[in-house]
């Protein structure tokens, strides 16, 4: 007698259980077998809480995030005076597709590029174009890759040559507040703890936290529950981070006001309302039974506790 899980294994030519529309043999069959599974995973919607990942799903997320982190390690050194953001976009696109993966932002709700490039007063969702990086700029590169159906999402703010002391302090605040939030989390923590820690640190350092854009659950979908505000929001803050939930922390910290404006022509680029600087870092995090696991750690990028320094100005 077959059990319930057995019945869900599709035949090789039947549609895959993941909903991709591909045949099972062309989709998850080999991954299921390689993972030691004798049966397919139950459909996410058949589980009590589909946001809580199984061991196989956690392995898939770890892989997607590690690919995305390798891409961050690859692209970082190209950020130099004179490169355009669309040249960075091409490098990201080609690196990704050459490895058989998919740039998640390309075509996502109509977004036209393979990453978001957000310099200086751009808060997030900047579209790569003919803007040429200049000495003194700070720029956030936000990368998301789909690997075998799973999303890895992370961003860093990078310095273009020597930057101002204020830009260094702002960048440091975004980085430190992200890590302070990660380090406060335990299994079953409430989401509000993330926003409380980030807001407190930003306030202490004289900066403001963007409210209209937030972190998010992530997995087979780019954006899903839970919402992760970076300020203490009573509504979303009640969510509990159970072992198995995967989400991002991605604080956008502004030099001046937290308020933002959306570009009226492209409907994507988000600017600070006062034209002052904004900085952001992002990691994808899996809550496990023993605490948060940062899935998007790079080998060569800034590690927990990193102190940012502006390279010496060249005349
Ligand atoms: N990577 C962004 C995030 O961290 C989302 C970019 S969506 C896009 O959630 F459409 F703007 F690319
Ligand atoms: Co994100
Ligand atoms: Co992102």
- CATH class value of the largest domain: Alpha Beta
Number of strands: 17
- Helical element count? 7
CATH architecture of the largest domain: Alpha-Beta Complex
The value of Rg in angstroms is 20 Å
Strand percent estimate: 15-25%
| Helix/strand order | HHHHEEEEEHEHEEEHEEEEEEEE
Ends apart, CA distance between termini: 78 Å
Unreliable stretches: 1-8
- Structural class by helix and strand composition: alpha+beta
What gross morphology would you assign?
Answer: globular
Domain count: the total is 2
Summed up, what is this model?
It contains 7 helices and 17 strands. It has 315 residues and is of the alpha+beta class. The chain is globular and about 65 Å long.
Explained architecture:
With 315 residues, the protein is α+β, with helices and mostly antiparallel strands. Helices cover 26% and strands 22% of the residues. The protein has helices spanning 4-7, 29-34, 55-75, 85-98, 165-184, 192-204, 234-237, and strands at 102-103, 116-119, 122-124, 138-147, 150-159, 189-190, 208-209, 215-217, 224-228, 240-241, 246-249, 252-254, 260-262, 270-272, 278-280, 283-288, 291-294. The strands form six sheets. Strands 1, 2, 4 and 5 form a four-stranded antiparallel beta sheet that branches. It has a three-stranded antiparallel beta sheet with strand order 3-14-13, with no helix packed on it. Strand 13 and strand 14 (270-272) form a beta hairpin. Helix 5 (165-184) runs antiparallel to helix 6 (192-204). It is globular, with a radius of gyration of 20 Å. The model is unreliable at 1-8 (pLDDT under 50). Bound molecules: 2-amino-4-trifluoromethylsulfanyl-butyric acid (MF3) and cobalt (II) ion (2 copies). 2-amino-4-trifluoromethylsulfanyl-butyric acid is lined by residues 105, 108-109, 111, 116, 125, 142, 144, 153, 216, 248, 250, 282.
């Amino acid at each position: 007698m077959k059990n319930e899980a057995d019945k869900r294994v599709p035949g090789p030519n039947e549609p895959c259980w993941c909903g991709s529309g591909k045949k099972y043999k062309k989709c998850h069959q080999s991954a299921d077998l390689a993972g030691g599974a004798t049966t397919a995973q139950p459909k996410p919607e058949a589980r009590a809480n589909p946001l809580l990942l199984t061991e196989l799903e956690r392995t898939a997320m770890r892989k997607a995030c590690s690919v995305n982190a390798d891409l961050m390690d690859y692209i970082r050194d190209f950020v130099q005076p004179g490169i355009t953001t669309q040249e960075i976009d091409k490098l990201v696109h080609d690196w990704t597709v050459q490895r058989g993966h998919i740039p998640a932002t390309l075509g996502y709700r109509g977004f036209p590029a393979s990453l978001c490039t957000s310099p200086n007063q751009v808060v997030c969702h900047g579209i790569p174009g003919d803007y040429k990086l200049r000495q003194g700029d700070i720029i956030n590169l936000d990368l998301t890759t789909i690997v075998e159906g799973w999303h890895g999402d992370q961003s860093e703010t990078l310095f273009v040559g020597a930057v101002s002391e204020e830009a260094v302090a702002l960048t440091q605040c975004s980085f430190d507040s992200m890590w302070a939030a990660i380090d406060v989390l335990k299994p079953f923590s409430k989401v509000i703890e993330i926003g409380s820690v980030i807001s407190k640190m930003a306030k202490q350092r004289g900066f403001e936290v963007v409210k209209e854009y937030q972190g998010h659950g992530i997995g087979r979908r780019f954006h899903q529950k839970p919402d992760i505000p970076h300020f203490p929001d009573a509504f979303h803050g009640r969510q509990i981070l159970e072992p198995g939930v995967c989400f991002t922390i991605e604080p956008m910290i502004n030099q001046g006001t937290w308020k933002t404006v959306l570009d009226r022509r492209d409907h994507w680029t988000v600017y600070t309302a006062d034209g002052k600087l904004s900085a952001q870092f992002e990691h994808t995090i899996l809550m496990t039974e023993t605490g948060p696991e940062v899935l998007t750690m790079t080998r060569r990028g800034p590690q927990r506790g990193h102190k940012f320094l502006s390279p010496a100005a060249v005349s």
